[in-house]
Design a protein that fits this description.
By secondary structure, the chain is mainly beta. It has a single domain (about 15-130), classed as Jelly Rolls (Sandwich). About 5% of the residues lie in helices and about 40% in strands. Strands 1-2-8-3-6 form a five-stranded antiparallel sheet. Strands 5-4-7 form a three-stranded antiparallel sheet, with no helix packed on it. Strands 9-10 form a two-stranded antiparallel sheet. The longest helix has 9 residues, at about 15-20.
């Protein structure tokens, strides 16, 4: 792991896990550039997170369990993607031993409204001429 967190080319899960094992917190900051940061998170027995000021993405690296965002609960497993908007209560309610997840914090200065031009459906055209609405 390099000392300058804003210029990482590659972060391997085993290397990130080794770093996480050396800190008392349940997370290790691995990359930070402007409002973007990447962490590896592995709660100890209970997830005590509070809502964050930034949007966040989780990509589950290992383990499984149940994730809560607001009133919604979903099961998760390795490779799953979870999204939490800024300010929304959330937690990994249950998780297996060895659970680890990548966390990507980011800040969006403009949140598009549903059905705005940037949210309009996109048609894809494949070489065969097939269209997907």
């Amino acid at each position: 792991m390099h000392a300058d967190l804003d210029n990482q080319l590659h972060i391997a899960l085993p290397e990130a896990g080794d770093l996480l094992a050396k800190v008392p917190e349940p997370f290790a900051v691995l990359f930070k550039r402007g409002a973007l940061s990447v962490e590896l998170f592995a709660p100890h027995e209970v997830d005590t997170q509070q809502p964050h000021e930034q949007d966040e993405i989780y990509i589950v690296a290992a383990g499984s369990g149940v994730f809560r965002r607001g009133a919604d609960r979903v099961p998760f497993g390795p490779g799953d993607f979870l999204f939490v908007p800024a300010g929304v209560p959330h937690a990994f309610e249950t998780f297996s031993s060895g659970f680890q997840t990548w966390v990507i914090f980011f800040l969006i200065t403009h949140h598009p409204q549903p059905n705005s031009p940037s949210q309009a459906p996109v048609k894809l055209q494949f070489r065969s001429g097939t269209h997907i609405p």
